[in-house]
Amino acid sequence: MQTKLSLKPITLVLLLITFVSFGQHHDTKSADNTHDDATIDKAEERKQYINHHLKDTHDFTLFSYTKANGEKGHIGFPLPVILWDNGLKIFSSSKFHHEEAVAEHNGNFYKIEHSMVYKTDAAGTITYDDHHHPTNVKPLDLSITKSVFMIIVTGILMLLLFRGLGKSYGKNNGIASGLGRFFEPIILYIRDDVAIPNIGEKHYKKYMSFLLTVFFFVWFLNIFGLTPLGVNVTGNIAITFSLALLTFLITTFTAKKDYWQHIFWMPGVPYLMRIVLAPIELLGIFIKPFSLLIRLYANMQAGHIVLMSLIALMYLFNSIIGSSLSFLLSFAISLIEVLVALLQAYIFTMLAALYFGMASEEHHHEEAH
Amino acid sequence: MEIPVMVGAGLVVIGVGFGIGKIGGSAMEAIARQPEASGKIQTAMLIAAALIEGIGFAALFAV
Fold it and tell me: What is this structure's pTM?
């Protein structure tokens, strides 16, 4: 009963944020669409807005708006910037003034250019080489960015949720209670329909922790990406790369003798064929996790671009038809994205389980397949 | 004469569309024939579709 009561206000607040954030965008648009010469700038601005949304930022901005006097207002909160530049430098990202100003910390000056922190002089000069890459010194950036912040939030959420579920079994005579009742069948599904058929009864247990963690991590972050928080964590190639790297390492280090034999000296095929197959199979070790990382990244990135573009239709047509069209289309795509969020988490887990199954398989070579 | 990259990517996406369509259609037929095996068929269908989809995304990122 208690969880029900506390969920209602949270849902209400989330809904309100949605209305307020979209409402704000609309206001800014209708305020300055009187100028016809601004049309090209508007198209460019939309593009920049979408690109900015897809990127990781050093502060957590829910939305920005243009004030009556032309200034930009931001609603959100700053996050800590942690740099390694001849010693640890920690300061708040509010010093950057939303990536526009030069931040000063203990006599050093930093500026953000294309979401990267560069060391500059007091005026914030950034020099470019022939390929338009900044030549300034780039300190090692360990900042708690928006993505890192969301990963920490998701981690804490998962820890509380699943520890609570685990504990409720002890208290409740082996029956899950509260929110756990929703997650229990999903966990059982991962075990009974993903892990056991792909890995096998004998070895599945040691992989379960990774499979469950990666499933819920990807699923939750995908869902967070659809909320008006404006985060795009799983659509960030660095994060999908790390997940794929973990899968690769687990596959490689838990592989049994038979796995390597099937790669380097495939049994049951003619000798000449084995020589041809070995390099292909060897390449396959790397292609498998690579396809995992590209699939998740591309799916989430594409989903965000489509959704943002459809919302941008509202400002493109600038009429009641455009707005209603934009609302209907983006609503439909949002529903599909909720499905995709689950599907991509499922496919990632499924394929990871498949690779683990290949690694831990033990063949009976009398059959000579 | 040079064919633009976008045309190539479009062709790949058409191919991917046909491929996933064929997988979906065949899975439908298979489920209609053996409804009791629908769980296994769905899993196999999703894996095959995901593998083909990867190629489509590779083409899109080449643009």
Answer: 0.79
Calculate how close chain B gets to A295, using CA atoms only, in Å: 6
pLDDT digits (tens, 9 = 90+) for A280-329: 888 888 888 988 888 898 888 888 888 888 888 887 777 888 888 888 99
- Kindly provide the ipTM of the predicted complex, given to two decimals: 0.71
Instruction: Please report residues of B whose CB lies closer than 8 A to that of A295.
Output: 50, 53-54, 57
DSSP letter string, A81-93: EEEESSSEEEEEG
Ordered domains of chain B (ranges, CATH) = 5-62 (1.20.20.10)
Q: Which residues of B touch A193 (CB under 8 A)?
A: 39, 43
* Helix, strand, coil fractions of chain B, as percent rounded to 5: 90, 0, 10
Q: Which of A222, A243, A239 shows the shortest CA–CA distance to A340?
A: A222
Contact A294 B60 (CB under 8 A): no
Task: List residues of A whose CB lies inside 8 A of any B CB.
Answer: 193, 197, 291, 294-295, 298-299, 302, 343, 346-347, 350-351, 354
CA dist A350 and A347 (Å) reads 5
A208 and A294 in a common domain: yes
